[in-house]
Design goal:
By secondary structure, the chain is mainly alpha-helical. It has helices spanning 3-30, 42-66, 71-93, 98-116, 123-142, 148-169. The protein starts with a helix and ends with a helix.
């Protein structure tokens, strides 16, 4: 991949999966549709999560259908989209840790890649991700943002959705 194509790819991913969703959440805050950026009330979390799921889904579609990026890229984006959709559905009834889903999702992706490409350089990434799972989960509990059940279910859902999606599609 040339430097120019790599830069375009990184820019597109950054804009569609970070910048635009962030602007959407800031707009919700500015218009007082959410009380704060922590979105402690589960009712306030539904629309931002749905908004993010739509943007991730659109990004996945564009990368797969329009730009024809490699299968691994679209598989990772799809696994993240599925995680956000599940997070959004669960949030209708129950508050679950989005942070736990995210970090354990990364762990699941790295572990699936490690299993598919041994020997590889993913050993340290997997170890670091498992460490980060513990740190993020502990931080969410220490901040009283979630109870242990919300953190554990987040960790399990994020890990298995992403791990299995990568194993099946890559």
């Amino acid at each position: 991949m040339s430097d120019e194509i790599a830069w375009r790819f990184i820019s597109m991913v950054f804009m569609t999966t970070f910048l635009i969703p962030l602007m959407g959440i800031l707009l919700l805050k500015f218009t007082r549709n959410i009380s704060n950026l922590n979105m402690e009330d589960k009712k306030e979390r539904i629309f931002p999560f749905l908004f993010n799921a739509i943007f991730y889904g659109a990004t996945t579609y564009l990368f797969w259908e329009k730009f024809r990026f490699p299968n691994l890229v679209t598989a990772i984006l799809l696994s993240i989209t599925i995680s956000i959709v599940i997070l959004t559905i669960i949030t209708v009834w129950w508050k679950i840790s989005a942070h736990a889903i995210a970090i354990s999702g990364a762990t699941g992706i790295y572990l699936a890649l490690l299993l598919q490409s041994e020997p590889s350089n993913f050993y340290y990434a997997v170890a670091a991700c498992f460490l980060l799972c513990g740190l993020v989960g502990s931080a969410r509990l220490q901040l009283a943002a979630h109870d242990s059940k919300q953190v554990w279910y987040g960790l399990l859902i994020g890990f298995f959705v992403n791990f299995l999606t990568i194993l099946i599609l890559n």
